[in-house]
Design a protein that fits this description.
By secondary structure, the chain is an alpha/beta fold. Helix content is 38%, strand content 20%. It contains ten helices and eleven strands.
């Protein structure tokens, strides 16, 4: 099982990008990975006449402009504490920033892409920033989404990860997601909570004649399936198992706040959506106060080795 050897960190020179770079460097130091720091210069969108043809030479960076932009990337990296990490500063140019990030991740065989959430709390965008959302859809590896800096929240990638929350949907990907969470929690000697949310307030639930019976019919199997999933992944090692009820994104965020979670681990391929139609995991990443790791559909053990988890076991329904 290979370790994480290459981290790709996407920056845009903003202040939040510094937090993103700090997290990428922390991850690299912890797992012995090299870091590629990438800035993508956005080219003008082709006109209708140009179609899918390459941008005209007049729209791409001149050698002088490219040198100036490369120098800016180099300086941004130099301002970070990069000791102990092999790092390279890259500059690409593309009409689509997301496509360029995904292409670089593929070319570098990156094990992890680190990006900012790409939106502010006041944003009306329905989920994440469009670039981050597009990276999540196309990335060939796991993606770590870093939230906007908050004055009252300590960056866990500096202070250390003490509490990890893994949200599972019982999809085919859930085991891989849980494997990654187990490995991360073990490596950091962190407490691990495994959460599944039963969304009862659907149209079917609303039409149910006996809602209490409907609730019990949904909750009990969910509890049993969660216990079985956790047992298959880590045996009888201590872990907190939580079955909540409500809107998935809301419950995950509420539990993360209550438990002072430092890292939320979710799957990239979950089909679960909020009542407004946005992907649940993206809705979580948009509002989370801590980093959110989107585990790629391939077995997530590609990222880290599994270690024991020293946390107390508490199985309950909320």
């Amino acid at each position: 099982m290979p370790e994480c050897s290459r981290v790709l960190c996407a920056i845009d020179f903003s202040e939040p990008s510094r937090r993103v770079l700090d997290c990428a460097l922390w991850w690299a130091r912890r797992y012995g990975a090299d870091v590629s720091v990438l800035h993508v210069h956005a080219l003008p969108v082709p006109t209708t006449d140009e179609g899918n043809n390459p941008p005209p030479a007049s729209q791409t960076l001149t050698p002088e402009e490219r040198s100036a932009h490369q120098l800016e990337v180099d300086r941004f990296v130099e301002q970070a504490r990069t000791d102990g990490v092999q790092i390279e500063a890259l500059l690409d140019e593309d009409v689509s920033i997301a496509d360029a990030i995904v292409a670089r991740a593929d070319a570098l065989a990156a094990d992890l892409v680190v990006v900012g959430a790409g939106t502010h709390a006041s944003s009306e965008h329905p989920s994440l920033g469009p670039i981050t959302a597009a990276v999540l859809r196309g990335a060939p590896c796991s993606v770590l989404v870093i939230p906007q800096p908050a004055a009252d929240v300590v960056n866990p990638c500096v202070s250390g990860i003490k509490n990890v929350m893994c949200a599972v949907s019982f999809s085919e990907q859930s085991r891989a997601v849980l494997d990654s969470a187990v490995a991360l929690a073990g490596e950091s000697a962190a407490h691990l909570s495994v959460v599944h949310v039963v969304e009862l307030f659907s149209e079917v639930a609303a039409l149910a004649y006996d809602f209490d019976a409907h609730r019990e019919a949904r909750l009990q199997p969910a509890c049993e399936e969660l216990v079985a999933l956790v047992a298959s992944a880590i045996g009888d090692k201590p872990v907190e198992e939580i079955v909540a009820q409500g809107t998935a994104s809301h419950e995950i965020l509420k539990l993360a706040a209550e438990e002072s979670t430092d890292l939320i681990v979710v799957g990239t391929g979950s089909a679960t959506r909020t009542p407004g139609g946005r992907p649940t995991a993206q809705a979580v990443a948009r509002e989370a106060r801590c980093p959110v790791l989107f585990v790629h559909a391939e077995p997530a053990a590609d990222v880290l080795l599994r270690e024991p988890i020293p946390s107390a076991s508490t199985d309950h329904v909320r």
